[in-house]
Design brief:
Blueprint lengths: L2 H22 L17 H23 L4 H25 L1
């Protein structure tokens, strides 16, 4: 697993735990799909576990087909930048 995958997992975890903290301290989750579970540990299962599974699958795919490694890395950079933007936005809202 490469650094981008680890960053993706870490950012998902940070977003999940920041949201849990915020909801449990009086903030509201604006995403209607996540709102019912935002303050619970179920949100970890919904956000962090899939991120881990995606990272493992991408590691296996790029090991099997090395030609796609660059494409996967570009996609992961985009996802990591997007998640940094989301976390920054969430922190500025507090």
């Amino acid at each position: 697993m490469n650094a981008l995958s680890m960053a993706f997992i870490g950012l998902q975890a940070a977003d999940t735990f920041l949201t849990m903290w915020a909801v449990n301290h009086g903030f509201t989750e604006v995403n209607p799909l996540m709102a019912p579970i935002a303050g619970t540990w179920v949100s970890v299962l919904v956000k962090v576990v899939p991120a881990i599974l995606v990272a493992i699958c991408l590691a296996r795919l790029t090991a099997r087909w090395p030609r796609i490694r660059n494409v996967v890395n570009v996609g992961m950079v985009a996802v990591v930048v997007f998640m940094v933007g989301i976390l920054t936005s969430n922190l500025l809202e507090m």
